Amino acid sequence: MTTTSETQQATAPLSLQQQFLCIFAQGFEAGPFGPHYTEVFAWRVKGRVDVPTLRLALADVVERHEALRTLVQLEDGGAQRVLPAVQPELLVVDLDGAPGADRDRRAEQLMIEAETRPFPADRIPLLRAVLGRFDEQDSVLVLCAHHSAADVWSIQVILQDLAECYTARAAGGEPDLPAVTQYRDYVAAQQEDAAGPTVAASRAYWRETLRGAKIMVAPVHRTGQSPATSYHRFTTEARLSTEVSRLAKATRSSMFMVLLAAFTVYVHRRTRATDIVVPTFGPGRERRFQSTVGSFFNFVPLRVDLAGCRTFRDAIATSRTACIGAFSHELPLLHVLAEAPDLMSSAGPDAVPTLFQAVQPPYLMQGNRIGDLEYTAIWRRVIPQPLGSDTPDGMIWSMHLGADEVVGGLSYSRHLFEQAEVEEQVAGFLAVIGEMVADPDSAI
Fold this sequence. Notes:
Layout: E1 10-12, H1 16-23, E2 38-46, H2 51-64, E3 70-73, E4 79-82, E5 90-94, H3 101-116, E6 127-135, E7 138-146, H4 152-170, H5 183-193, H6 197-209, E8 217-219, E9 229-235, H7 238-250, H8 255-271, E10 275-282, E11 298-305, H9 312-328, H10 333-339, E12 351-359, E13 366-370, E14 373-377, E15 395-401, E16 406-413, H11 419-438
Parallel strand pairs: 5-6, 12-15
Antiparallel strand pairs: 1-4, 2-7, 2-14, 3-4, 6-7, 8-12, 9-16, 10-11, 13-14, 15-16
């Protein structure tokens, strides 16, 4: 485990995840190292927030996690360099004090405003914050990180540590958190494990599972708009969420497996394809790195073969098998592509990948009190965005699985897809989910 004294100007090679991002790099002007590739999350905070104390706690977090003060070098094969900590930006905004639902909507708007601000990846720190205050006892804390340095799991780790540091500072003390494993420790472990038996077994799994497979793509319709990512958002009825959960339990599956099955049936109806390879995201973390900040997420191809499926229940069983196999053999995509080099050959200028994910972040605070403050995550986002965090050309379906409803989002390249087409796809997918839960034994 590295220590703070060892990090000054320390260099390390890139992880396989970072190397994959470099394939799509367009310098620091666009793409995954550009100024619009951000990870944003927010919490409602109950209690009086002291701004100077929050600034100290933010500095503590940047000092604690190297990834937030690491610059990536894109030339000559790539490398990363850890720099000394500097104070992150904290923007304080006074918000309209209207009560109730208006505050919820204004909090979401604050997140959008934070997300659309350019965030350079070639300047540290790669973390900044916005504190929006409705009144002395009700605030919104938005954390923004460059996505090349932190994933959605990392943001939850950052908030947890920030809350602990704030509490210690508010009491007049110094934070006393357990030592943390750094991202370059993960890179070293990844390199050490690359030739080991676990990686070899997983590579063999992917070699066999993806034999002859092609990633799912969507045909594009160029719109003439400038390249950017837009976000369409939608919600389901509470009843539908409850029925998806009930069906998941009845089939010994997760809600994600049920929704994935519905998605593959939806794709089958649109394209008549039965061999469907849906890319999704995996956390990419072993237990020893669960408290580490960095870019760990993997792209995981889920191959679902509907050829032998007659009913929705059959599709769920096939989806379940695909998920269990894929996530128990999760590897960085560069390892997977080495075993299935033709996987991405279906993608090109006229057909781009479509991803499907369910978001259930760890450490998701819901009314957690740490010190004098109570934190509640804002995961329910319903406001559409004409401009949001960049994603590679294509579509990403995101299903946020709440207790009372499923909140969905479809991010898409607005220069490749018309909004009307996106809305039509969402309506079609939700209709399939409704059919599935109404009668799982009906024909697909």
